Input
Amino acid sequence: MSDFDTEFFNIGYLDTLAYKETFVHRLNPGIKLIVTLAFIISVVSFPKYEIKGMLPFFLFPVFIISAGDIPLRVILKKLMVVSPFVLFVGIFNPLLDTRTMYSLYGVEISGGWISFASIVVKFLLTVSSALLLVATTSFPGICFALDRLKVPRIFVVQLLFLYRYIFVLLEEALRIVRARNMRSFGKKGRGIRSFTNIVGVLLVRSIERSERIYQAICSRGFDGRIRLIKDFRLRFTDIVFATVAIAAFIIFRSYDVTEMLGRVFST
Amino acid sequence: MHMSDALLSPSVGTAFWAGSMGAVAYCAKRLRQNMDEKLIPLMGILGAFIFAAQMINFTIPGTGSSGHIGGGMILAILLGPYAGFITIASVLLVQSLFFADGGILALGCNIWNLGVFPAFIAYPYIFKPLVRNRRTPGRITVASVVSVVAALQMGALGVVIETLLSGKTELPFGTFSAMMLPIHLAIGLVEGFITAGLVNYVGNARPEIIESAFNSRPVAYTASIKGLLLTLGLVALITGGVFSWFASTHPDGLEWSLEKVYGKTELPAPERGLIPLLGRIQEKTAILPDYDFRSRSETTEGKTGDRWPAPGTGTSASGIIGSMIVMGMVFLIGFGIRSAKKIRDRKEFKSRV
Output
C-alpha cells in the first residue's frame, strides 16, 4: 500500500518539478531534447575500458541539477531503483575478463573491473540526464518538441492523452488497491484470479471513459490537433546553450581533459 | 527486460532507433488512411491504463513474491497492430523518461523488443490464427498464452543480441540467453494468463468492445504486415550488417564518423581559439607525454600495438590525479551555482520585505 502511494507520489513529483521557473526550465524543450541526446550519444560512444575521459561529462547533470533547482536525492533514488539490470549484466565482466590491466601500488586491477566501472559510469550519466530532462521540461513541452521534430501527429496527440490520463487512472487504481487491501488480510486476495478481475474492472471503466472523452472533445471541435497556449519559440539563449553544450561535449569527447588536468597538477 | 543505455553502443542504439521510428511512421500512415478519430483517446487511455495496472501488484503463483504486468499484447489485441504498436511505443517513452526504465538511446531497442514482436509477429501470426472466428474463452486463453510467451521470448533474445552487438559485456551468447530465456518463459506464462483473463473479462462485461476490436479495427491487412515485416527486417539486416562491419574494423563509432568526415581520427586542429590553446597547455604541461613517464615510454615502445593503453604507472598516476581534480571541480561548480542561487533568493526576499 505504501508502495503504491510512494510510486504515485514519485511520478507526480517529477511532474511538479518540471513547472519550476529557472534558467534550465525556460530553455526550449526541443533544444533540451537534442542536447540530451547529443550528451547520451557522446557518453555511450566511449570505448569499453574508458573511465576518466567520461568524468568531465558529469558537469552536465550537475549543472542541470544545481541550476534547475532539482533535489539531488530524488535523482539518486531513481538511479538506485533501476540499477539492478545494468549491474547484473555488468558484474560478469570482472568474472570473465581477469587479465590484469593496471597495477597500482601492488594492487592488480583486471580489465573486467575497469569495464564494469565504465558501464556503471555510463549508466549514471545517461539515466540521470534522461531523468533531468523530464524534471526540467513539462511533458506537454516534450510532446511539442516531438511535434516540431516531425514525429507523426497521431503519436504526439495520443501521447498527450496518455500523459493526461495517467494521473486520473492512477487515482482510480489507488482506490481499487485500497479497497482490495481493506478486504484482504495479509497476502490473501492478491492472486492472479482476483487481480485479473479488478484490473478487468479498471480496463472496462477506462474504455468507457475514453468514449465519454471522445464525445466531449468532439463537442468542443476536436480536429486531431492539440494547441498549446505556451509559446515555445526559439530564443537567443537557447541557441547559445545548445552551442556551448555541444561544443563542450565534442571537446570532452575528443580530448582527454582529465588526463591533461592530471598532468598540470602532478608537476 | 528493458534494455539500458549503458550497455549499448551508439551504432546499435541508432540503428534500432531508425527501425522503431520507421515502424511508428508506417503505423501512423496506415492509421491516417482510414482514420477512426475515436481511436485517439482510446489509445491514450489504454496506454495510461497500462501504467495504472502496473501499479497493482499480484502474487506470483508458487513463489510468493509479487509482480506486475507488462501489457504489450493486451494493447495489440484491443487496438489492433498499428494503434497497438504506437501505444506500446508511447508507454515505453513515458517509462524511459519518468521511471528511468531503459534510457533515451535504448528506447529504440525497447520499442523494437516489446513493440514490434508482439504487434507485428505475435498478434497477426500467432494470436489471430489461433483464435480465428470462434471466440470461445478457451481459444482466447490458449492464443493469449502462446502469443505472449512467444513475443517475450523474442524480446528477451532481442535484448541479448543488442547487448552482444554493442560489445560492452563479456557474457557469451549461450550463457546470456540461458539466463534470459527461462526467466522470460515464466514471466510470459503469468502474463499470458493475465492477458487472457482480461480479454475474457472485457468479452463478458462489454462483448461489443471485443467484437469491434476483432472486426472493425484495421487488423486484417496481413499482406501489408508482411510487407512491413519484410522491409523492417531488411532495414535491420542492412544497418546491422553495415554497423557490425564498422564495429569490427572501427571499434569506436565516433572515431569512425570523424574519420569519414575529416579523413583522420582526430579533429583537425583549428588555428585559433580554445582547442589550440588547450593544445599548447598540453604541450607545456606534458611532463608525461604519451600518457607515460618519458623513461618508461622508451622501454615500452614495442607495446603500442596492444589492445589496451600501455599499462604503466604514468598513465595511472596522472589519470587518477586528473580524475580527482575533475570530480572536485564538478562538485564545486554545482555547489557554487546552488549557493549563488541561495544568496540571490535571500536578497530578493529581503528586498521584497
Notes: Residues 246-271, 284-312 of chain B have pLDDT under 50 and may be disordered.
